[in-house]
């Protein structure tokens, strides 16, 4: 089968590449081994008619106006600012840790300056910051680290904070004010009709053909493409020749409550110290949907299963670099997205990287 462009994976990375090349007159074949488009951002109505995210909660946020503008061609938006509470010793506290968290947890009534002084007093100064334990202790000290971070991280990654890159816990800021939003990006919104509808519009082009339930392994020798864009796991592409590159998996347990309009006060509640799941998300907060019942998802971290997260340790980064050398030498094939670039990307970062690559290649075809 002949095509200008083969795109492996119909998630954000693949969909942006497909749309860009199709709009520049190239014939594009998109394959995905799953039965649907959208990758991990796929959403659907559950059997009760509530819009849920099959692969866990996806909240769109960005500081990149060009990413917002690009996606706005394919969707309207509903403004949504995510809020998260953490369940510690039976009470719910705002996360990221902020003024409220400190006052509520320690029965204080500090103002912003008081909270800054509090952190200064409890923090353990670490230089250099080598890992996620360093960054948390350096910011908030041991008690808050043990209550909010250590056990959550152990559950999520199967590793201690000290084994993970500082960038992991560094995703969560610490605040002295009472801002209780999870993200502070300028643009925070959900696709008004859902992610799947947005992907349908991105891929709706006469030059794009989509083959679902199609694994790259089974067609790699059958498709004759000038350029291939691969967004699956990097180690699988190279037949695991250097061994398995670790990816963290999750299992998602969805549940619907027909008799309950609301399950919890905010979109997500984290459970750092109890249960085997890390967090519960209630979708109606994210989507604004009205329904007499409500649907939630619990996330159970797993070592095996579908790959969802690269695992940011120095050992894994070294193994990734070995695979990357092979990837760089693979002429006509480009490795894109969270799994193939082995980067802990948010959705907007995947879109930005795919836009950059497509504009480079389309302006300077090799
Ligand atoms: P994916 O979406 O993983 O798409 C890759 C596609 O490739 C998949 O559909 C897969 O089936 C397909 N594929 C793989 N191998 C093959 C093969 N051999 N043959 C054919 N097809 C193949 N980001 C945010 O910005 N905000 C959030 O709130 C957020 N929440 C998240 C929550 C969870 C639980 C997870 C796991 C991620 C979250 N993310 C979030 C990150 C977001 O999911 C990713 O940044 C984004 O989806 C990555 O897009 P991608 O195209 O790189 O990969
Ligand atoms: N984290 C934590 N406690 C929390 C929230 C986050 O220890 O209450 C740490 C944990 O290591 C987690 C990382 O910070 O994996 C990043 O959290 P984020 O919510 O960004 O994770 P994601 O949404 O990507 O799963």
Description:
With 366 residues, this protein is an alpha/beta fold. It is built from 13 helices and 17 strands. Helices cover 35% and strands 22% of the residues. The chain has a seven-stranded mixed β-sheet. A five-stranded parallel β-sheet has the order 10-2-1-11-17, covered by helices on one side. Strand 7 (84-88) and strand 8 form a beta hairpin. Helix 1 (12-23) packs parallel to helix 13 (347-363). The protein is globular. 39% of the residues are buried. The mean pLDDT is 98. Flavin-adenine dinucleotide (FAD) is lined by residues 8-14, 31-34, 39-41, 55-59, 215-217, 231-232, 250, 308, 337-339, 345-348, 350.
Based on Cα principal axes, name the global outline.
Answer: globular
Number of strands: 17
CATH C-level label of the largest domain = Alpha Beta
What class, by secondary structure content?
alpha/beta
The name CATH uses for the topology of the largest domain is Rossmann fold
Number of helices: 13
């Amino acid at each position: 089968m002949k095509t200008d462009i083969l795109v492996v994976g119909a998630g954000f990375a693949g969909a942006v590449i497909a749309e860009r090349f199709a709009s520049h007159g190239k014939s594009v074949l998109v394959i995905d081994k799953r039965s649907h488009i959208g990758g991990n951002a796929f959403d659907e109505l559950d059997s009760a008619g509530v819009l849920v995210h099959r692969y866990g909660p996806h909240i769109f946020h960005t500081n990149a106006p060009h990413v917002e503008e690009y996606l706005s061609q394919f969707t309207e938006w509903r403004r949504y600012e995510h809020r998260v509470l953490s369940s510690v010793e039976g009470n719910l506290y705002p996360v990221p840790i902020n003024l409220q968290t400190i006052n509520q947890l320690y029965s204080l009534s500090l103002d912003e300056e008081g909270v800054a002084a509090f952190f200064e007093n409890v923090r353990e100064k670490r230089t250099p910051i080598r890992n996620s334990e360093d960054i948390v202790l350096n910011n908030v000290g041991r008690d808050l680290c043990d209550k909010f971070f250590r056990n959550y991280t152990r559950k999520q990654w199967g590793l201690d904070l000290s084994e993970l890159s500082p960038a992991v816990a560094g995703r969560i800021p610490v605040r002295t004010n009472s801002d209780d939003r999870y993200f502070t990006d300028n643009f925070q919104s959900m696709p008004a009709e859902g992610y799947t509808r947005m992907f349908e519009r991105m891929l709706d082009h006469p030059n794009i053909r989509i083959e679902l339930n199609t694994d790259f392994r089974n067609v790699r020798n059958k498709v004759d493409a000038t350029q291939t864009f691969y967004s699956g796991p990097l180690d699988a592409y190279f037949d695991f020749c250097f061994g398995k590159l670790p990816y963290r998996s999750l299992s998602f347990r969805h549940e619907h409550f027909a008799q309950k309009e609301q399950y919890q006060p905010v979109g997500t509640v984290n459970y750092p110290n109890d249960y085997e799941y890390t967090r519960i998300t209630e979708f109606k907060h994210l989507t604004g949907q009205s329904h007499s019942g409500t649907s939630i998802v619990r996330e159970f971290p797993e070592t095996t299963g579908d790959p969802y997260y690269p695992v940011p340790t120095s050992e894994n980064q070294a193994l990734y670099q070995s695979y990357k050398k092979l990837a760089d030498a693979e002429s006509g094939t480009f490795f894109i997205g969270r799994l193939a670039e082995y980067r802990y990307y948010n959705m907007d970062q995947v879109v930005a990287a795919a836009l950059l690559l497509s504009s480079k290649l389309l302006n300077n075809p090799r």
